[in-house]
Amino acid sequence: MSDDTIDYSDIPPLTDEFFDRAMLRIPASQAQNLVHLDPDVMKWFQSQGVQPTEMINAVLRRHIENNTQQSA
Fold it and tell me: What are the structural domain ranges in the chain?
């Protein structure tokens, strides 16, 4: 199906007012895993050629292990 066969005329335009009232809704199961990373940090992880999430987890895990060993 191509775009020229779809009738969009009954869809109202998305105005600034719409976006002012819009809310981002994240499922609770995913919300508990959200972490804000600075853009430059995320860019560095993405540039490493591996899955950023896996690498971030590995770095955090190593940090925890190193700090746990120092505390013991």
Answer: 3-71
Task: Give me the percent of the chain exceeding a pLDDT of 90.
Answer: 56
**Distance, CA of 6 to CA of 55 (rounded, Å):** 43
Contact call for residues 45 and 56 (beta carbons, < 8 A): yes
52 in Cβ contact with 46 (< 8 Å): yes
Q: What is the pTM of this model?
A: 0.51
Backbone angles phi, psi at 12, to 5 degrees: -70, 150
Q: What separation in angstroms does the CA of 12 have from each of 5, 15, 34, 54?
A: 18, 9, 33, 41
